[in-house]
Each structure stands twice: as C-alpha cells, then as structure tokens.
Amino acid sequence: MSERSRAFGRRAAGEIGTQATRALAAAALVLTVLVGMWILEGVDYVLGGQLDTYGIRARDVGDLPQIATAPFLHGNFEHLMANTVPFAVLGFLAALRGLGKFLTMNLIVIVVGGLGVWFTGPPNSETLGASILVFGYFGYLLGRGVFERHIGDGLIAVAVVLLYGGIVYGVIPTDARISWQGHLFGLIGGLIAAFLLRRKRSAAY
Predict the structure, then answer these.
(1) 149, exposed or middle or buried, with CB in 10 Å at 0-12, 13-18, 19+?
(2) How far apart are CA 143 and CA 157, in angstroms?
(3) In this structure, is the dihedral angle defined by the CA atoms of residues 33, 36, 40 and 41, taken in order, positive or negative?
(4) Residue 49, class by beta-carbon neighbours within 10 Å (0-12 exposed, 13-18 middle, 19+ buried)?
(5) Which of 142, 180, 189 is nearest to 162 (CA)?
(6) Which of 29, 136, 171, 175 is the most buried (most CB within 10 A)?
(7) DSSP letter (8 states) at residue 169
(8) Cα separation of 24 and 186, whole Å?
C-alpha cells in the first residue's frame, strides 16, 4: 500500500470518527432535553398544572421572560407524546452539524418563535409546547438544503419533507386549541437560523 493510500485511509478514518462523535453528542443532547421535558411534565402533573402558567400570554409584558420556558412545557402528557418523536428525529438531524451551531439555532428559534407568539397569539390563554422547536428544526433543515446547496444537506431536506412535510399544515389556523402562531413563527425562526448559520461555499461537508 502506498503512502498516499495510507494517508487517505487515515483521513477517512478520522472523518468517520469525527462524524460518529458528533452523532453520539447530538443523540445525548436531544435525549437529555427530552428527558427533562418528561420530568417537567411529571412535576406539572403532581402540582396540578401550575407550571403551565410559564407559557406565553400574548402582549403581556410580564410573560416576555417565559419565551424561554414555554417550548419545554406542555399542557398534558398527550401533548408531550405528540411532540416527542418529531423532536427526537428532527432535533438529532439538526444537531449533527455540531452542538455549538445547534444551540445557537435553538436560541434563534426560541426568540423568533416566542416573540411571534407574544405579538400575535391569543391573549386569554398560555401558549406552550415543543412544537415551536419542532417546526423550527423542520425549517432549519429545509433551509440548509436551500441556502447551502450541498448534496448532503439537500438529501436531508428531501428526507425531512418526505417524513414530516405534512406538518406545514400546522401553520394554518384550523383549531383554536392549537397554536398555529407557534408553528408558523417557529418555522420562520428555523429558516432564519439556516440562513444566518450557513457555511461558506468553499467549506467541506
């Protein structure tokens, strides 16, 4: 085996090791957040729903800090179960690029999605739930396929559309019990994050 072949093999092994490490870190982080959500919902159940007051009430200045808490709380276990699988799948795919970029993307989605709900949501109820993040992850992965124009990102975007493309109907106001505002602005936040965090065209995947 030539020196060039050995060098190529070492680079390939190093790249595989890096990707495996990122995948494990992504899975661990997303699983940790999910476990935290389930623990919070268990506490909320014991407290008789008291944590639900940490959702977002539109145009209530006192609820502005709760933009940061609302995506991690749920109205009940059924609500949480509905968000668990898409959060795990889309969150894992979004985190594969690196935890630093993933955390920055989450911050953008939470701020854009939360402010969108605060300005346009129903004033007489608390809006909460991880669907803000789920739609944000969907928008982020879709946006990466559009803005970065890389085959890997494009394939992930296609897979995400095939798996979860139907969720876009969630941005349509069809049910007063469902926060279409959280869905819409979470999606917009994900698209904004994809644009702001896009890589330089010369960067390798």
Answers:
(1) exposed
(2) 8
(3) positive
(4) exposed
(5) 142
(6) 136
(7) G
(8) 26
- Match domain 3-196 to its CATH number in 3.40.120.10, 3.40.50.150, 3.30.1490.480, 1.20.1540.10: 1.20.1540.10
pLDDT digits (tens, 9 = 90+) for 128-139: 999 999 999 999
- Please state, in angstroms and rounded to a whole number, the distance separating the CA atoms of residues 64 and 56: 7
Q: Which residue bears the tokens 């390939």?
A: 12
Q: Which amino acid is at 102?
A: F
CB 89 within 8 A of CB 160: no
> How many separate helices (H) and strands (E) can be counted in the chain?
6, 0
**Residue 201 forms beta bridges with which residues?**
none
pLDDT digits (tens, 9 = 90+) for 40-79: 999 999 999 999 999 999 999 999 999 999 999 999 999 9
